[in-house]
Design a protein that fits this description.
By secondary structure, this protein is an alpha/beta fold. The protein has 2 domains: 144 residues, 2-Layer Sandwich (Nucleotidyltransferase, domain 5); 71 residues, Winged helix-like DNA-binding domain superfamily/Winged helix DNA-binding domain (Arc Repressor Mutant, subunit A, Orthogonal Bundle), CATH 1.10.10. 35% of the residues lie in helices and 26% in strands. A 6-stranded mixed sheet has the order 1-9-8-5-6-7.
Length: 268
């Protein structure tokens, strides 16, 4: 994930170059130790686990995992959910991601709709909302970005009491997301400075985590690799036919973005 210079000084990031999580927890900002980061990642991958299981999965000592779990517990990310009995008769405590550990926001911002989903850190769907626009709005419209911010704010108010705060926000955009060196010239041409600054600042105001940007077809391709028809495949091409025609290329499990972020843009 790379920093993107956005208009108005608003912070933002490019989407990930490879497959996998968009970054459920901004671990460096959360101040987690390396062992806690490793333990959290293994817990997200394995699901409810004991300390010995996490130690094996993370190649860590049991003592290190115990300290990491305690750290994650203090941060509100992990909780104990019970105990199981092993073959030798000893019991071990089982840990899971806390229900109030936070959640992730996904926004698909297009010319005809705003589609939002909220998922927990383990990927479970919490809430979904879609708002179609009455007429096709140009992407530079500040009305469209205001609608996206309003939906994000509504989800936050609905979920924060039971699930905590937003940990990260990802925004899918219907055009190629440029590289850092090309961002200044491309943002202004495809998305007005005012509208993009409004959207980014609005999301940053709602939470302290990262805001990620990526092309919508690239996002769909990564989702297919993680949850859909391309799951288990390291090399594939995703073709999307809708208002326009777009494609995304994944090679060796990593998204091919191209020099200008436009790899796979077969038609406009």
């Amino acid at each position: 994930m790379a920093d993107v210079p956005l208009p108005g000084g608003a912070p933002g990031h490019l989407g990930p170059d490879g497959m996998g999580s968009l970054g459920a927890v901004n671990q460096s900002e959360a101040g987690l130790s390396t062992s806690a980061q490793t333990t959290l990642a293994r817990l997200l991958g394995l699901g409810p686990s004991t300390r010995p299981e996490l130690a094996v999965a993370g190649s860590l000592s049991k003592q290190t995992v115990s300290l990491a779990v305690a750290e994650l517990g203090r941060a509100g990310l992990v909780r104990g959910i019970g105990r199981i009995q092993g073959e030798m008769g000893r019991t071990a405590q089982v840990f899971a991601i806390s229900e109030r550990s936070g959640w992730m926001l996904g926004l698909d911002v297009g010319g005809t709709h705003v589609h939002a989903v909220a998922v927990s850190l383990d990927g479970s769907l919490l809430q979904e909302e879609r708002s179609d626009v009455s007429e096709r709005l140009a992407l530079h419209s500040r009305n469209l970005t205001a609608k996206a911010i309003k939906i994000a704010r509504g989800l936050r108010e609905s979920l924060r009491s039971d699930h905590g705060e937003i940990r990260a926000a990802a925004v899918a955009l219907p055009f190629a997301v440029p590289s850092r060196t090309q961002a200044d010239q491309v943002w202004g041409r495809l998305f007005s400075h005012e509208a993009l600054a409004d959207l980014t600042q609005g999301l940053v105001t709602e939470h302290r985590g990262p805001v990620l940007f990526e092309n919508n077809v690239n996002c769909a391709a990564l989702a297919e690799g993680a949850y859909g028809g391309a799951r288990g495949h390291a090399n594939y091409i995703y073709l999307q036919i809708g208002v326009g025609i777009g494609a995304a290329i994944v090679t060796d499990g990593r998204l091919v973005r191209g020099a200008a972020g436009a790899a796979g843009e077969v038609a406009r």
